[in-house]
Design a protein that fits this description.
The chain has 171 residues and is α/β, with parallel strands linked by helices. The protein has one domain (9-133): Rossmann fold (3-Layer(aba) Sandwich), CATH 3.40.50.620. It has six helices and five strands; from the N terminus they run βαβαβαβαβαα. It has helices spanning 21-33, 53-63, 85-91, 104-120, 140-148, 159-170, and strands at 9-14, 36-42, 76-81, 96-100, 125-129. A five-stranded parallel sheet has the order 3-2-1-4-5, sandwiched between helices. The longest helix has 17 residues, at 104-120. It is globular and about 45 Å long. Bound molecules: adenosine-5'-diphosphate. Adenosine-5'-diphosphate binds at residues 14-16, 20, 22-23, 26, 45, 99-100, 102, 106, 131, 135, 138-140.
């Protein structure tokens, strides 16, 4: 796909196990920067996921109702991808790969990833966005820990995701 045909394409990859308000906040911000945004759910992740790739994708799709920019829905795609992210970005004609930066602790790993991806896909930039400060400490893994022990996660994830977590850990 030619880059110019649909404007700037952003790819937002991640595990999304599960999607949180931090991810949704980032998607809203990214829609201001990109003409088309591809939220890419990684099929193969190093940690064993709690939810399957299909479940993770479906929860993101359902969360899109919570976006501030509701009219932007037609500029958004949620897909599952496997293999090399840099190759996926090239194949989709991406302008940039988007990642979130929360604390300084995210930085070193993200810098390594971004520079590695640059060698593999030299025309694809790396873009980092910071979430609203209230989501800065939010991560899917912390939320899973809280939910696993019966804690209330409704401030961190959409209500239907909180229910899915509750059901999963009740088993
Ligand atoms: P990964 O395992 O690829 O890091 P995650 O689903 O944990 O997948 O995160 C996907 C992306 O979203 C990462 O760039 C991460 O930094 C970002 N992210 C996760 N939680 C937040 C948050 N609360 N605020 C901003 N960015 C976040």
């Amino acid at each position: 796909m030619a880059k110019s045909s649909v404007g700037r394409i952003g790819i937002y990859p991640g595990s999304f196990d599960p999607v949180t308000f931090g991810h949704i906040d980032l998607i809203d911000r990214a829609l201001l920067l990109f003409d088309h945004l591809i939220v890419a759910v990684a099929e193969n992740i190093s940690k064993t996921p709690l939810f399957t790739a299909e479940e993770r994708r479906d929860m993101i799709v359902e969360s899109l109702d919570l976006l501030k920019q509701t009219s932007a829905r037609d500029r958004l795609e949620v897909v599952i991808f496997g293999g090399l992210l840099a190759q996926f970005a090239i194949d989709r004609g991406a302008t940039a790969i988007l990642r979130g930066l929360r604390a300084v602790s995210d930085f070193e790993f993200e810098l390594q990833m971004a520079l590695t991806n640059r060698t593999l896909a030299k025309d694809v930039e790396a873009v980092f966005l910071m979430p609203n400060a209230k989501y800065i400490y939010l991560s899917s893994s912390t939320i899973k820990d809280v939910a696993r022990h019966g804690g209330d996660v409704s401030k961190f994830v959409p209500a239907f995701v909180a229910k899915r977590l509750q059901d999963r850990f009740a088993k």
